[in-house]
Write a structure and sequence with these properties.
The chain is an alpha+beta fold. It is built from 17 helices and 7 strands.
Amino acid sequence: MTPPITEEADENGHRTDMRRLNALAMRVASRLDLLAGRMVDAFVVEIPLYAHLPREQLEGEILQICRHNLRLFFGVLSENELPGEQELLAVRRSAARRAEEHVPLEMVLAAYRVGSKLGWEALCAEARPEEREDLLEAAQLMITYTQVVTSAVAAAYLEERQAIHDEDREARRRLAEALLAGMPAHQLAERAGHPLAAGYHVLAVRAESSVDERDEEVESAVAARRKLRRMEQSLFDDAGHEVLSVLAPGGGMVLLPITGRDDRESRVEATVARLAKAADASVLAAVASGADLAELPSAAAEAEHVLQLAGRLNAAPGTYTLDDVLLEYVLASAGQVGRRLADVLLPLESGPELVQTLAAWFDSDFHRRRTAAALHIHPNTLDYRLTRICELTGFSAGTGRGVLVLGAALTLRALGRSHNESPQLSDEHRWSPEKRPG
């Protein structure tokens, strides 16, 4: 403690006798228990949530922290020195307990405002005529004390809430990982306070980099973490604790509880739209459903495979299902036979326009004039190229079998299954379910 100041002057030259102020504080402090009780009663009347707290808590812990705060404040008036970290420890612990109990921070701070008001009124009521002028100094000390204490309260509260959030987030993440891996999850669910649904829609998502992540002037790691927090918050805002996820800035897995027989399309589309908005980036997603918890690992594998296929096909942002990539799914699993099928197009690489022509022919649904217009060539030139394709590959793009084989080879080429791992399709030929070859 610094030595008490016995006399101070304000900007108008008024001199405060600190000994008079100390004496005033000591007289009010003699009724500390009565004043603390009045504070608790005021909390119940003026702050709605406090009216619903257990009586034993009000008359125990809450009353005790009121007494502690009054002692600290009267100590400030007596010694003219603000409380240190050790003296504020009880205040910080009390704030942390309120955070654990999910008491809103604004209500915790409101209690300190109410307490300060009552403390000030007690000082004014007790002040003798010769002490009235000293109340200005008391008011300044009270304002400073309240700022110090409420800052400590807010910091402790927010630290505890962040710790609780991180612990809850990690528990829910472990639960999601267990469900996706097919591991026993009921005990994890109980510890996380998360009731399990009977089944889930499993959503595999891939998020592109946000504008901030691509900005060379912005720290990309910070931008990525902020994007992740926004994505996780969007899921919470959508359905609170019902949704589970294992996310990173670039995407991950989301578990949406099944709420009805026909809820998948609407729920998934809404979720993906929210994720894209939160990420400030394009989102590609794939979905599969597990009617019960035992089916979740296979549903997750299906969704991940569909997402990979959509990505390799340069698919437009949106949501895809196995039905959208049935042909691609089968062909991608064809192994050595698939590579041999992809090699059907090898002879066309001597003239790159032939592969482009074949792709445009399928994209235009075998419409001669539309294909020619898309390639900016004369229809007769298109006829020549289609004939040349047949001569080089042995398959005609105008016959049923030729369409099947050439279409499958084009699909494998788009999937990167040719001998030289061809690049993805250009934007001009961006893949969508409507453009499946064949």
